[in-house]
Design brief:
One of its GO terms (cellular component) is ATP-binding cassette (ABC) transporter complex. By secondary structure, the protein is α/β, with parallel strands linked by helices. The chain has one domain: P-loop containing nucleotide triphosphate hydrolases (Rossmann fold, 3-Layer(aba) Sandwich), CATH 3.40.50. The protein is about 30% helix and about 25% strand. It is built from 8 helices and 10 strands. The strands form 2 sheets. A 6-stranded mixed beta sheet has the order 6-7-8-3-9-10. Strands 2-1-4-5 form a 4-stranded antiparallel beta sheet. Helix 4 crosses helix 5, helix 4 packs parallel to helix 6 and helix 6 runs parallel beside helix 7. The protein starts with a strand and ends in a 22-residue tail after the last helix. About 40% of the residues are buried. The structure holds adenosine-5'-triphosphate. The site of adenosine-5'-triphosphate has 13 residues, from strand 2 and helix 2.
Length: about 250
């Protein structure tokens, strides 16, 4: 469970408290309280600059709030960063920011190696994580030989190899063609069914609306919508969020 209580994040204070500094501060996240239960598929939607990335980066301490608290499984994130980062896996907007090794297997193993696990356990986690993104047995392939969709799936596998309770993906469909988008959506559906909590950040709901248990819509750093998809749909276009054309969401069952 991820819990946010009164979280506020600012940029650009320049390290001082004077009026001049305050005048240039951007409030990216403004007094947000939110709980993300284990196993939930949550979509965080909102226009560019509404605070989505900043908000989810507080979930595992990549961004430290200026006010408020974030706890993961009951422990404040700033008291145990390792626990928070083990429980909340993050896949960045551009997988190139995240892929660190030359081959698929070495890349996915990077996180578990830093946890000090045994070789057998690392191998098992890498194999399981690659299977979960439909890339079983491709450990030896070079990252630079992969398509954009495959790189995205390797980035997801790298986060999964940490065995997180929640997987957070920031704009996972950017730059992917339709088959690659569908493949990533299929993987997210399967992960959710397997019990992993999934948080997807997007300004375009078409790919994930049918999977969501709940949609949180941000506007100017505040929660403007917090509802199941069918209820959220009427409010979201007002937040400059692209919704499926029918305005209705398909059943996630298939
Ligand atoms: N490192 C930074 N330094 C200064 N301002 C920042 C920084 N990161 C974000 N901001 C500002 O904070 C606000 C929220 O940005 P954030 O990236 O969290 O929103 P977002 O909804 O994820 O946007 P996008 O969809 O464009 O990624 C914006 O006004 C942005 O310009």
């Amino acid at each position: 469970m991820i819990d946010l209580d009164g979280v506020t994040c600012r940029y650009g204070r320049g390290g001082g408290d004077g009026d001049a500094d305050a005048a240039v501060a951007t409030v990216a996240v403004d007094d947000v309280s939110l709980s993300v239960p284990d196993g939930e598929f949550l979509v965080v939607a909102g226009a560019n600059g509404s605070g989505k990335t900043t908000l989810v980066r507080t979930f595992n301490g990549l961004v430290e709030p200026d006010a408020g608290t974030v706890t993961v499984n009951g422990t404040p994130v700033d008291e145990d960063l390792v626990a928070a980062r083990s429980a909340v896996g993050m896949v960045f907007q551009d997988p190139r920011d995240q892929l660190v090794a030359a081959t698929v297997g070495a890349d996915v193993a990077f996180g578990p190696e830093n946890l000090g696990l045994s070789h057998d356990e690392i191998d098992r986690r890498v194999a399981d994580a690659l299977a979960a993104v439909n890339m079983a047995g491709r450990e030896r392939e070079r990252i630079d030989s992969l398509s954009g969709g495959e790189r995205e799936r390797v980035a997801i596998a790298g986060a999964l190899a940490m065995d997180p309770d929640h997987l957070v993906l920031d704009e996972p469909f950017t730059g992917l063609d339709e088959p690659a988008r569908r493949s990533v959506v299929d993987r997210l559906r399967a992960l959710h069914r397997g019990g992993t909590g999934v948080v997807v950040v997007t300004h375009d709901l078409r790919d994930v609306a049918a999977l969501a248990d709940r949609i949180v819509g941000l506007a100017d750093g505040r929660v403007a919508v917090d509802a199941p998809p069918d209820e959220a749909v009427s409010a979201l276009p007002g937040l400059d969020v692209r919704v499926p054309e029918s305005g209705k969401f398909a059943s996630p069952a298939e």
